[in-house]
Design brief:
Blueprint: E1 2-7, E2 12-21, E3 24-34, H1 41-59, E4 63-67, H2 75-94, E5 98-102, H3 104-112, H4 119-129, H5 139-154, H6 160-171
Helix pairs in contact: 1-2, 3-5, 4-5
């Protein structure tokens, strides 16, 4: 299965692509979409969308995994990140991909075995798991690869409400 992982952000949006089979992950590509702070937010979101579409068209993933945004102290930063995650979701849905979300602690636990791992541990494990010659950089890129690997290994997070709704629709 080919998975594209997204570490959403308005300034830096990490993107990582991996192929996974039978508990193994193989590096395909990694990068970061950067948008200048001098642009207004709508233009920055359009640029993120444009670049994500290009990645999806080039690498043809079967699934998209996005880091689930969590509450932070800085509301402005959270809103920017949520908007970037929304654009990624839209790109994935329009491309017909299975789109899933994984929390930071879930990703850390899947990759390192500890839900409280720090950035250095995450980067070291991604370098090792994907057998990279050099650590992925910046951290947003490493995070995107970790999100893709997590999804490939664990699959989508089960949403009990969504499953119940789908079951109810099937019963109609």
């Amino acid at each position: 299965m080919r998975v594209i992982g997204i570490d959403p952000g308005l300034t830096r949006c990490g993107i990582g692509v991996v192929d996974a089979t039978q508990g193994r992950a193989r590096f395909v590509a990694v990068g970061v979409v950067r948008t200048p702070a001098t642009l207004e937010t709508p233009q920055r979101l359009v640029e993120i969308e444009r670049r994500l579409i290009a990645w999806v068209e080039e690498y043809r993933p079967e699934a998209m995994a996005i880091e689930r945004v969590f509450a932070q102290h800085n509301r402005h930063s959270v809103m920017d990140t949520m908007q970037a995650a929304g654009v990624a979701s839209l790109v994935g849905a329009r491309a017909g991909l299975d789109v899933a979300y994984h929390t930071p602690s879930e990703v850390k636990a899947a990759v390192t075995g500890s839900g409280t791992a720090d950035k250095a541990q995450m980067i070291a494990m991604m370098t090792r798991i994907l057998r990279l010659d050099a650590p992925p950089s910046p951290a947003d890129a490493a995070d995107a690869l970790a999100i893709a690997v997590t999804h490939a290994w664990r699959g989508p997070r089960t949403n009990r409400y969504a499953a119940a709704v789908a079951a109810a629709k099937g019963a109609l």
